[in-house]
Design goal:
Chain lengths: 116, 505
């Protein structure tokens, strides 16, 4: 009797944890995935201009069109990646890449001065 | 992972994305299939525009400019869309005194201004419904459509993964097995047969509005000057008015010059700041004979007629405009147009059968446990399938039944047609919430009654019955009448079969 109640409590706790991690995954996939996509699109547009010397408007168009495919990939991956922490970490890294490019003075990067 | 393993997780995703987005996707696919024939529906809804083939050449200066100057008055811009194979009239568009976009039609044969029907018709109502659901506030509609588009891509990819025996399923259709089995077979069949179409139509729909979904990217590359992006990519020219009056140079001369430069026809001319010394005229190149909706445009000075900017579509912009053209179907090709229509409807059937399968599998269990999920989804499914069809028919019937002149009531007739659409749609939802899956039968019968009513009203108000339309070469009107009657037959046959299914238990 006592052990059944304990088991039930454990089951309840498992359920709760399962739901919480699922909610986090959905949020990370849809919201985080979009934020990461926007960041990656920004970064690639900027790199296309600064590394290859592509015209700005062409870089924007190419990056934006690829953005939909990037987001689709991220969304699918978010729902099949077994390790939730890895999903969150990589999405955060993606978002951070844009922030880094924005905050870091671009002229000081040798790659970019080379093509500038 | 939400499921036990890769495929189970995607199956979970497929189910929930489908359940949550199904209603929205049905609305988009239904309206999208209809607006493939938006110009033809326009002829049906705007009877005075049921004209013969337009003349090959016409003078804009003589036929259109006087009307534009009188009607548009001091509007910031007005535009002329030239007649084409599908639209036998000249369209004049301008913002009215309240800034609301207004359209008037002109007979290209004699320059006569056609009466205002007080209807937005398909190009003005069903088309914007398809891409914005008429939710303009903060672009909510566009974002919902973006969610629907991404959701559709996810559903297609996950669907392919979970139905791994896709070839075998494609050749399996058992209409006489259980309803549930037949529903799933139909879902797989329509899903596979038009899979590339469904994927490309969703992706291209998203690519059209890239600037709405990724606004910060443009701002990042063009800080504080997003307009420069439009100029470089799409050749937008702008300048401020001077407040000094001037007369408009010849539009015909500008059109001829553009025609010569392109070896192709212009389809639209837009005059900015008309009557001002800083006025300019934008001439756009036709894309009737290519998929890519090119952005070739020549901009002329409004008073001197001098060329200000000659923009040609660049290679990358052409790719974006190719995807747009793939979605907009503005090229002239009847076979392809019909295939687009069928492809859209097959998507609609795929989504509807997917939803029906989900509720069918859960209805008994949900009722036993007292869950309302299956009941709610039943209602959403009814409302977005038969309900939306009824709303569309209500829109057509209102168009033919409302008197032409509502002057006494101070009501915008066009808005009233729109209200008919939304009120009928809302009432089908209420009906479905009360009756659950039982609402199907009633609403199918209503479609069976409403569609012939629309055909009859068209005959009574315009005299164009089917034989007459065919005789006069009014193919658009005849086609619309025929499809309405086909719809009625399909709805009645389905209702009958549904009844038999219920009787058999």
């Amino acid at each position: 009797m006592h052990s059944a109640a304990k088991q039930g409590r454990q089951q309840h706790q498992m359920d709760w944890r399962h739901h919480a991690s699922l909610a986090l995954r959905v949020l990370a996939g849809i919201g985080g995935g979009f934020a990461c996509t926007v960041a990656l699109v920004s970064v690639s547009a900027r790199l296309l201009v600064q590394l290859i010397g592509l015209a700005s408007h062409e870089a924007v168009l190419i990056a934006c069109m690829l953005g939909f495919v990037i987001y689709l990939g991220l969304l699918l991956w978010a729902f099949v990646e077994p390790r939730l922490w890895r999903l969150c970490l990589l999405l955060l890294l993606g978002i951070a890449s844009d922030l880094a490019l924005q905050l870091g003075p671009p002229a000081s990067l040798p790659l970019i001065t080379g093509a500038g | 992972m939400p499921g036990d393993g890769f495929r189970a997780s995607l199956s979970w995703l497929h189910t929930w994305a489908g359940v949550l987005l199904g209603g929205l996707l049905l609305a988009v696919f239904w309206s999208g299939s209809l607006v493939v024939f938006d110009r033809e529906i326009d002829r049906w809804m705007l009877p005075s525009t049921r004209l013969g083939s337009p003349p090959v050449d016409l003078s804009l200066d003589r036929l259109v400019v006087p009307h534009a100057q009188r009607l548009a008055g001091t509007a910031a811009r007005w535009s002329i869309t030239l007649p084409s194979e599908r639209t036998p009239v000249i369209q004049l568009e301008f913002p009215n005194a309240e800034g609301v976009s207004t359209r008037r039609f002109i007979d290209p044969a004699n320059g006569e201004l056609l009466p205002d029907h007080g209807s937005w018709a398909a190009t003005g109502f069903l088309f914007p419904f398809h891409y914005s659901l008429h939710l303009r506030w903060r672009n909510v509609g566009y974002w919902l459509l973006g969610i629907a588009g991404m959701g559709m891509l996810l559903l297609l990819v996950s669907g392919v993964v979970i139905h791994r025996k896709i070839i075998r399923e494609f050749f399996t259709f058992r209409p006489h097995k259980s309803t549930q089995r037949a529903t799933l077979d139909l879902h797989n069949l329509t899903g596979v047969v038009a899979l590339p179409f469904h994927f490309l139509i969703s992706l291209s729909g998203l690519i059209i509005f890239f600037a709405i979904y990724f606004p910060t990217v443009i701002e990042r590359i063009y800080p504080r000057n997003s307009a420069a992006f439009s100029t470089e990519a799409f050749g937008n020219y702008t300048r401020q008015p001077s407040a000094e009056p001037a007369t408009l140079a010849s539009l015909d001369a500008m059109r001829d010059r553009a025609r010569e430069a392109w070896g192709d026809e212009p389809y639209m001319l837009r005059v900015w700041h008309p009557g001002d010394a800083q006025a300019y005229v934008e001439v756009r190149r036709s894309f009737a004979r290519q998929v890519t909706m090119n952005v070739d445009r020549m901009t002329f000075d409004g008073s001197s007629g001098a060329l200000l900017l000659d923009h040609r579509t660049g290679p990358v912009a052409a790719i974006q405009r190719f995807f747009s053209g793939l979605h907009f179907v503005q090229f002239e090709h009847w076979t392809l147009r019909w295939l687009y229509f069928l492809g859209g409807l097959s998507g609609w059937v795929m989504i509807a059968t997917g939803l029906l399968f989900w509720t069918g599998a859960r209805r008994a269990r949900h009722q036993r446990h007292g869950h309302t999920g299956a009941h709610l989804l039943d209602a959403i499914c009814v409302c977005s399938c038969s309900g939306l069809i009824l709303a569309t028919l209500g829109f057509f019937i209102a168009n033919r039944a409302l008197p032409a002149d509502l002057g006494r009531f101070e009501i915008d007739r066009a808005a009233l047609e729109g209200w008919a659409f939304f009120l009928i749609w809302a009432s089908t939802l209420v009906h479905a919430l009360i009756r659950g899956a039982g609402a199907w039968h009633g609403q199918l019968l209503a479609i069976g009654g409403a569609a012939p009513t629309a055909v009859l009203l068209n005959w009574l108000t315009t005299g164009d019955h089917l034989l007459h339309s065919l005789q006069q070469g009014r193919d658009a009107v005849a086609g619309m009448d025929l499809l309405l009657m086909l719809l009625a037959l399909l709805a009645l046959a389905t209702a009958r079969r549904l009844n038999r299914g219920i009787a058999n238990g």
